[in-house]
Design goal:
The chain is mainly alpha-helical. It has 6 helices and no strands.
Length: about 130
């Protein structure tokens, strides 16, 4: 009997999140909170794009991993959390990442109305079926 292979649909996001969290961990362990903040800030735009591309689940998966790593530095009892302003900036950026996923999704569906949706479906259904028809 062979085990059933289950595809890992999030292998790209897992690999990307591992690189990001590894960098964040190193920076935060070294007390480089500002540089870690720069890494998180650089993710804002890609998170919005992922939301726009309807990759919400994938973006949230990356966001969770980033938050898990940065939360350690945000908590006041940790050595890396010496500067309150830096901690607040890190917390703010983590929230901003999640907001931008939602904003990207909003940007995508903002002009979606029932009429526009119906017209798109109608247009697609009336299109010649070159691939399926003999």
């Amino acid at each position: 009997m062979q085990p059933e292979e289950v595809p890992d649909h999030f292998w790209v996001e897992d690999a990307l999140a591992s690189v990001i969290t590894g960098a964040l961990r190193k920076l935060l362990d070294d007390g480089e909170v500002r540089r870690a903040l720069g890494v998180c800030s650089a993710l804002v735009s890609p998170m919005r794009v992922m939301g726009w591309q309807l990759q919400v689940e994938e973006a949230v998966q990356i966001w969770r991993r980033v938050v898990d790593e940065t939360w350690k530095a945000i908590r006041p009892q940790t050595p890396a959390a010496s500067n309150r302003l830096e901690r607040a900036g890190l917390a703010n950026t983590c929230v901003l990442l999640l907001i931008n996923i939602g904003l990207g999704l909003h940007d995508r569906v903002e002009n979606l109305t029932a009429t526009a949706f119906a017209e798109t479906i109608d247009r697609e259904l009336r299109r010649p079926c070159r691939d399926l028809c003999p």
